[in-house]
Amino acid sequence: MRRQLHLDTDLGGDIDDLCALAMVLAWPDVELVGITTVAEHGGKRAGYVRYALEMAGRGNVPVAAGADASLGCYRSWPELPEETNYWPEPIDPIPGPLDGALDLLEQSIELGATVVGIGPFTNLALLERRTPGILERASIVLMGGFVFPPREGYPTVTNEMDYNVQVDVESSRLVLDRSFPTLVPLSVTVETFIGRADLAHIARAGALGELIATQAKAFAKDESTPPHKKTLWPALPADTINFQHDALACAIALDWYKGVQMEEIPLRFEVEDGYLREIVDPGGRMTTVVTRVDGDAFSNHWVEVISNLEQSDNDSSGSV
After folding, report:
1. Does the structural domain 3-315 have CATH classification 3.90.245.10?
2. CA-wise closest residue to 307 among 213, 201, 200, 211
3. What pTM does this model have?
């Protein structure tokens, strides 16, 4: 069965957005009907998305720049890393009217596509304000949330570290109050990984795979990722570079459930000391929450899936 997907992403910062996009492009029987960007820098993120799509021979996917960082709704300024370290050439921004992105997002929802939010929830909140009630009838998967703490042996992340939710609390609360999303929480996604041992294989997955491998090395350097974290995170591989937060959310949206546990949990959403909390409450809003994943199985699956990019890259040779 062919699935329709719309990505709402802040690609251009943490490398897991690019990893997620590559996986979706390589996943069989998926139609990517649109991509909107959020926490924008004058269309720079949209430019990065378009460049990655063209690398994979998929330049026909609609892309629109959404909510800009200059709106002033973010707790902290959404930074972009040094472009020369992450991209092979200067990338032109693709600015556009905010309404254009909201139109694309609304169109995808009306088509029945699943919207996967892998950045701050600003675009979704703006759409709900413009078209009240639209999120209630939408199929939405969100990377974010912090219902239960991480399991022992994994990074000791906290609710305050849940960037997608906490960087724009007002938008996050509105979206969670007005929709029935599937939450893929930070405390679960930290069980996934991309490791140094994967990079050689990833680099062989076409031009986009080579770009991911390059960015992973740059990210490890920028984040001062130590060569091993076995003593800090004993449940993760010693060569872990980063986590596959966004790729896991996309895989859940595409019905990948190997080793995945999901529960319907009544949640109440409250803002305390400037941070949003998801509180288990019998009188709360029933919410689908991913509570566990087999991180090894998913991380290996991601590497296997993006190997399909090599074939698609060869098939589209000369079309970019």
Report:
1. yes
2. 201
3. 0.94
